[in-house]
Design a protein that fits this description.
The protein has eight helices and 16 strands. The protein is α/β, with parallel strands linked by helices. The protein folds into two domains: 246 residues, Vaccinia Virus protein VP39 (Rossmann fold); 75 residues, Beta Barrel (OB fold (Dihydrolipoamide Acetyltransferase, E2P)), CATH 2.40.50. The structure holds S-adenosylmethionine (SAM).
Length: 327
């Protein structure tokens, strides 16, 4: 959640919703999402209000009380004297037949769920209808939604299918406020869903605390990076370029997301990119002079946003001649 927040910050996003935080986290568990936002804002600020409340919704009572206590401690540590976020715990088992929120619930301006949506059996189309209806009623104008889900094939594809259904449903019902911001920077057909065996995920580095390393060793795992799938949505009539100013000045056709690791092929780097035109393999030869001039580093990593890209060749053999900026 912190890294998604940092990406918003990198792309120039600035908080425009009301000046009191009204956050909600669904299936909050130990308040991972809310704490992630606090961490994100500390290191990559977007101007989120430092006063307001978080509603934590969770079916497990013990976990909810642990999450509430932990969040209070963590908020104090991260936000310090800069602010004061209150916690309102709601012990509730969400039954989608009744909707995600009671009708009398207020509007929120920051909406999170992490590893929660895949707990439901509803079809992507049904889930999309429920989400859109709830956002229409309970998401403030300029509010932000961040959905984080596992990077595993089935769960990740479910999120991608929900994205597709959300776009279709929003188009059909004329919800012009609905805007997907990340990771796709648009409403194009999903490049990963185009193949039955593909999915889309991000991976971030983190500092593994010693106790985590010990658990990894015992479990025979190596969690040096954190993989996840995600979707960031906003309710706004502003253009994507206004919301994410780093994109402005670069045509939609010249914006690409790196969606795989990159590896060396001779002096070139090879990786997959995804854009308005779908997903394709691409090669890039970083030239020292160009790298320095355009502030493009030699390394290309999964998740990078490449702006002002000039492509050569077709989908089967694409070369990137130039990258003007990395987001
Ligand atoms: C995989 S955990 C994720 C916890 C936390 N969001 C995180 O990322 O660390 C899923 C959480 O959702 C809660 N949950 C699942 N179904 C729920 C429901 N129908 N209503 C409320 N909470 C639910 C579970 O109790 C659990 O805490």
């Amino acid at each position: 959640m912190a890294s998604v927040w940092a990406e918003l910050s990198r792309l120039g996003f600035q908080w425009k919703a009301s000046d009191q935080l009204r956050g909600v986290e669904f299936g909050a568990g130990p308040a991972s999402g809310a704490c992630g936002i606090a961490a994100g804002e500390k290191y990559a600020p977007v101007g989120i209000p430092h006063t307001g409340n978080w509603a934590l919704i969770e079916q497990d009572k013990a976990m909810l009380s642990l999450g509430s206590e932990w969040a209070q401690t963590y908020f104090k540590d991260t936000l310090a004297e800069r602010g004061d976020w209150g916690i309102r715990p709601f012990h509730r088992t969400i039954d989608l037949k009744q909707g995600l929120l009671p009708r009398a619930a207020p509007k929120f301006n920051l909406w999170l769920s992490s590893y929660f949506i895949n707990e439901f059996e509803e079809s992507p189309e049904k889930m999309a209808r429920i989400l859109l209806k709830t956002w229409e009623d309970h998401l403030e104008e300029e509010g932000i939604v961040i959905l984080v889900e596992p990077a595993l094939k089935i769960q990740s594809r479910k999120l991608l299918a929900i994205r597709k259904a959300l776009i279709e449903e929003a188009n059909q019902s004329g919800k012009d406020w609905f805007k997907i911001l990340l990771p796709c920077m648009g409403h194009q057909a999903c490049g990963a869903l185009a193949s039955d065996t593909d999915w889309c995920h991000e991976e971030v580095s983190w500092w593994r605390p010693p106790y985590f390393k010990q658990i990894d060793q015992m479990a025979g795992l190596d969690r040096k990076t954190l993989p996840f799938s995600y979707l960031v949505i906003t309710k706004s009539k502003r253009s994507r370029e206004e919301i994410l100013p780093a994109l402005s000045g670069f045509s939609v056709q010249s914006r690409h997301r790196v969606v795989s690791p990159s590896h060396n092929e001779g002096k070139e780097l090879e990786f997959f990119i995804c854009s308005d035109e779908g997903k394709r393999k691409a090669r890039y030869r970083p030239a020292e002079a160009q790298s320095r001039r355009a502030n493009v580093y030699k390394e290309i990593e999964r998740g990078d946003v490449l702006l002002g890209t000039e492509l050569r060749g077709d989908v089967n053999s694409t070369r990137i001649d130039e990258i003007k900026k990395r987001g």
